[in-house]
Amino acid sequence: MPPESVPMPGAEQHYRSLERLYASAPINQKFQSQLAIEGEGRSRLTFTIDQASYHAAGAAHGTIYFKMLDDAAFYAANTLATDRFLLTTSFNLHFTKPVREGKVVAEGRWISGKRRVFVAESRLVDEEGDEIGRGTGTFMRSRIALSSLDGYAGAGS
Prior knowledge:
Elements: H1 9-24, E1 32-39, E2 42-49, H2 62-78, E3 84-95, E4 102-112, E5 117-125, E6 131-145, H3 150-153
């Protein structure tokens, strides 16, 4: 691995803190999901879809797609903001295939911005390897310090 691609210890700490922040959010207690920060500008969420997330026609409701896509893009962008919590200011999504059950992976990737506004994209892939959705979001630095959030600080930080 080239030296420039080896993350600094501070970056690794930030990534693990973001993972704890995700796990601590009350909304995430409603989902079978897990966040992994894979490096600067990259996140990976795994969700398990079951009938609890269905709409009336028997497939996952669009709110689930939005949740997965927004979270993946958000956390990919927040890897570059080590001091402040980001806020979603806009998000566009495209549905390409319904999903009924099983594991879905949301892959997030930062695209641009490092100061005040960040742009990131994400995609959803089902167990068969098919893309089922895609999204692009704009995220803005808030006044909320990451260090002020219990989930970010976590035990032992």
